[in-house]
Specification:
Elements (H helix, E strand, L loop, with lengths): L2 H10 L6 H4 L14 E5 L4 H6 L6 H12 L7 E5 L13 H18 L3 E5 L1 H7 L5 H4 L4 E3 L2 E6 L2 H6 L3 H10 L1 H7 L10 H8 L3
Parallel strand pairs: 1-2, 1-3, 3-5
Antiparallel strand pairs: 4-5
The chain binds uracil (URA).
């Protein structure tokens, strides 16, 4: 089992916060471990909890449309959430739950090392751009921790507020060119060989 598979298994069996007691299935994420794009939502809903897969309910259908209409393919994108287990009755995840789950998200980012991270909604935005509102920062790509972060409204927002639909569609269309323009993500841990070179002063 490689590190990515091992992490997925660890998330499936995680009991580090109370959400593990009410879930049907944990939802680690879906997509290739070599994806250039990672999309991060809020947390699993009813359908995701049942199937153990992210974005398979109504918001997921809209996300699929957005991905396809922007010229991307869902199977090329890694899709996950800030919390991997469903908050009861789809309530907002609580700070302690987000904190308990953060190590899983951080490790997924480290392993996948995507060129672009698209944050869907305020909880995943806050992981990279704390203290902001989506309305202010949406569709403005920025470098955070050496990587391109692109904040967007959550697709479910358009299901509740139809006027956001075209905003989200427009914002989505920018993603392929962001990937083309993205600088290679900075490697937080230089490979052993490079470390050797540094330590030998060469
Ligand atoms: N909403 C999310 O934020 N994530 C999902 O997986 C489904 C709906």
């Amino acid at each position: 089992m490689n590190r990515f598979e091992e992490l997925t298994k660890r998330i499936q069996h995680c009991t580090d916060c109370p959400l593990s007691r009410t879930r049907t299935n944990a939802v680690p994420g879906d997509g290739p471990s070599s994806a250039d794009i990672m999309m991060i939502g809020e947390g699993p809903g009813f359908h995701e909890d049942r199937q153990g897969l992210p974005f398979v309910g109504p918001a997921g259908r809209f996300l699929n449309e957005l991905i396809t209409s922007s010229g991307l393919r869902r199977q090329d994108v890694f899709i996950t959430n800030v919390v991997k287990c469903r908050p009861p009755n789809n309530r907002d995840p609580m700070p302690g739950e987000i904190q308990a789950c953060r190590k899983h998200l951080d490790e997924q980012i480290e392993i996948i090392n995507p060129k672009v991270i698209v944050t869907l909604g305020r909880f995943s935005m806050a992981r990279f751009i704390p203290g902001q509102t989506i309305g202010r920062v949406r569709a403005k790509a920025r470098q955070v921790e050496g990587r391109t972060i692109y904040p967007m409204y959550h697709p479910a927002a358009a299901l509740h507020n139809g006027s956001l639909r075209s905003v989200i569609e427009d914002d989505f269309r920018a993603i392929p060119s962001l990937v083309e323009q993205a600088l290679p993500p900075e490697d937080p841990k230089p490979p052993a060989q490079q470390l050797d070179m540094f330590s030998q002063g060469r």
